[in-house]
Amino acid sequence: MTTETKAAVSTWTIDNAHSLAEFSVKHMMIATVKGRFGSMEGTLHIDEARPERSWVEATIDVGSIDTREPNRDAHLKSDDFFNAERFPKITFRSTRVEKVDDERWKVVGDLTIRDVTKEVALDTTFLGQVTDAWGKQRAAFEARTELNRREFGLKWNAPIETGGVVVGDRVKVELEISAVRAD
User: Fold this and answer.
1) Where do the domains of the chain lie?
2) pLDDT tens-digit map of 90-132
3) Which CATH superfamily is 3-181 part of?
4) Three-state secondary structure readout of the chain
């Protein structure tokens, strides 16, 4: 990386207190269960002159899962799903950024859940940038994707008597990211 390129790249830290990582999945074929992870961290490296050269690294603490039902949360942390003891982090490392339009981007990268890494695309919207009351630069982004949980080793399920299964395979993921400029 040249000095010119280094100067053009700004570093941003994810503000966990103002960011969200949420998911939703079908339960019993008809209802939707939503949950979130309460702890995430990461860094965004933004090339302001050429945003397509930007990159992101982020981790989510699996133990911070919250579906508002302690027994379900304990089950999700077990080996039937995330195995939080053996695989305490979900990680994402972008491999490329593609411009859709002036505010929307496709951030493609490697998502690792348990011991499985798959390429995923996050449909990302830049929400803007401001200076906060303490003089720090803040930026915000929304990102969405849909995953097949079974592809990441989250395979537990049970049939229901009337047909179908307890947990759907498709998981919608929604991220609300607030980041603070570090440099």
Assistant:
1) 3-181
2) 999 999 999 999 889 999 999 999 999 999 999 999 999 999 9
3) Lipid/polyisoprenoid-binding, YceI-like (2.40.128.110)
4) CCHHHHHHEEEEEECHHHCEEEEEEEECCCEEEEEEECCEEEEEEEECCCHHHCEEEEEEEHHHEECCCHHHHHHHHCCCCCCCCCCCEEEEEEEEEEECCCCEEEEEEEEEECCEEEEEEEEEEEEEEEECCCCCEEEEEEEEEEEEHHHHCCCCCCECCCCCECEEEEEEEEEEEEEEECC
